[in-house]
Design brief:
Elements (H helix, E strand, L loop, with lengths): L1 H14 L2 E4 L2 E4 L5 E5 L8 E5 L3 E5 L6 E2 L10 E5 L5 E5 L6 E2 L2 E2 L4 E3 L5
GO molecular function, one term: cell adhesion molecule binding
Protein name: FHA domain-containing protein
InterPro entries: Afadin (IPR028842), FHA_dom (IPR000253), SMAD_FHA_dom_sf (IPR008984)
Amino acid sequence: KTEEIAQERQKQLESLGISLQSSGIKVGDNKCFLVNLNADLALNELLVYYLKEHTLIGSDNSQDIQLCGLGILPEHCIIDITGDGQVMLTPQKNTRTFVNGTAVVGPTQLHHGDR
């Protein structure tokens, strides 16, 4: 039963362009995505969130990416992919949003490796 569940999960991931490899994951070329690594090493879940041209992020189930936790508002921020391929994060009003440990108060360009 466990093996069947794992195979079904892999099929679903592959349908999204995500391939599980022995050394990790492989995502589709030319796709923008966020990776969420759990800070607790005992929890080895690796979550990959593909970005759309306009991606809503927050705690509400209406958001494209739903995050839970203290300080995550129902509508927390928006990530847009511009026509020239820039990835821009815009925090909503009264949210605590950080990029690389620095508070973000307006539209901010994201780069590969940002946290």
